Amino acid sequence: MQLNNHIAVITGAAQGLGRAIAHRLATEGCHLVAADLKQPELEATCAEIRAASGREIIPMATDVTREKDVAALFDEAVRRFGRVDLAVANAAILIAEPVDTADAEKWRAVMTVNLFGNFLTFKHAARVMKPQRRGVILQINSKSGKRGSKNNSAYASSKFGGIGLVQSVALELAEYGIRVNAICPGNLLDSPLWTDPTNGLFVQYLRAGKVPGAMSVEDVRRHYIRQVPLGRGCTYDDVCNVLVFLASDQAGYMTGQAINVTGGQEMG
To answer: CB–CB of 190/268 below 8 Å?
Structure first.
């Protein structure tokens, strides 16, 4: 339990990768304040983690684009636990459309959730951590934060901006003993983000023509597997292993970094 009795705040915790991260942090010994817009799913996730781990976990219905919600999230963590050791900015959305036909308000929404929402999370984590003179802030970014993504300009732009945010805030907070890093996962091909039959990325990318010549979801899947030198998609465990390391004292000399977890697909 590398993070025993640490206090962690995580956004986007109700499902998918956020849910997996919350489970792993509890397994590593954290008490959690978990945030998401989807309150019923969040309540169920927190109850499940609480029963499995015995750790204290507090669900907070939170819109990361509303400052009063994010401020209340960190205030509740301090009220209940007295401090915050770790903040994980995970909440994000993805809408893939060609740039010439993209819905402008959907494009704006991706930027607002993914970049402005990260800013608010970083701001209120820093507000709590600076007086402590310690803490770790981690951003869940993407390989799309390192390289452009065809027919996916809103998401890639938000993620490129996210790495700029990480580097800038890392410089600002280093003197307070606060480390700030990003994790850039590869494609989580077996996750609901990709496999959902209505709004999953396989369906979105097929619809957007992101994979030339693809006629089916399976064609899109094969295309993405072929891009990975290690020959498989990224998993939740792959991401969580790196996250726990970055959150721990073992990574005490690392800040301002954006760590690839891509099976060799992205090496820069």
So the answer is: no
